[in-house]
Amino acid sequence: MTDMKAPVTAPLVDPFGRTIEYIRISVTDRCDFRCVYCMSEDMNFLPKRDLLTLEELDRIGSAFIARGTRKIRITGGEPLVRRDIMSLFRSLSRHLGQGLEELTVTTNGSQLAKYAGELADCGVKRVNVSLDTLDANKFRAITRWGDLGKVHEGLAAARAAGLRIKINAVALRGVNEAEIPDLIRWAHGDGMDITFIEVMPLGDIEPMRIEQFLPLSVVRARLMDQFTMVEDSYRTGGPARYVRVGETGGLVGFITPMTHNFCESCNRVRLTCTGTLYMCLGQEDAADLRGVIRSSESDGPLHTAIEAAIARKPKGHDFVIDRRANRPAVGRHMSVTGG
Ligand code: SAM
Ligand code: SF4
To answer: Model's pTM, two decimal places?
Structure first.
């Protein structure tokens, strides 16, 4: 039970001894794209009144920082389409160097040309930009609504602002499969790292993800024919494991939730834009922090709720590619929980 008077600073440690020091905050479930593996074409979005205000998001983020959170990633939906989003970056940036070590963002890049300079001014040093293909037509097919030219403009603006860029690409069978070596050469040629992600069974979408699933173990084995890859100890606090490519000098990350469980080192939790805290991307259990902060101006109950939630953090997800069940492992879309 939290003492409501003293400032609460005790670190958050879960039942498996993992210290929680990384929170991903989804600021909206909306997006200007409709990536086929992430959303259906006719998504129903949340009414705006259900969203936490930017001040409320700051309040919860700040409570986590008081408890030892060192890294915050702002995500969504598309975080940069939320109105006035820069005010959240600005307010959270006051914690940089005061406990918070890194404030960062995952974006589809469509709005980066507009915001890269301001992000850098807010102390953001690195951004993750999701891009699965360099072919404009394929890009349009994957994102349904996206314009690859805009993303390239965003990447150029981010580089000009001095931001380090990591490209995130979902490996998609028969879609960008053959392009993976070119994506690596392109990213490394422009000084960007690149990470590949396996499609996860989140949310009901068409076509079935089972057809899109491409195990990264297969990708990696194929890459060995073209590249010299040496395991690298580089870590960002996230789930990716890296190799250094001899021919390009750059890093390639692999996020393999399906073929290799990364839960044993999980140090993070996720907050949705409605204030629901998920202790695991792949489990349903959650804690409602919106009700808690709206019912008390004091942060004591918020800390108590956070502690109770972390005490229930599960050991891991149990994603499986279930060919018979024909349904997602978790009903929430990635854009709801925040990628
Ligand atoms: N809109 C931003 C973007 O695309 O970068 C941030 C949110 S998006 C949900 C975060 C990441 O999740 C993206 O890199 C996207 O490719 C990935 N993603 C979305 N749905 C996924 C799924 N079902 N399996 C694996 N990755 C997924
Ligand atoms: Fe939007 Fe990102 Fe989901 Fe694509 S992956 S639909 S860009 S939230």
So the answer is: 0.92
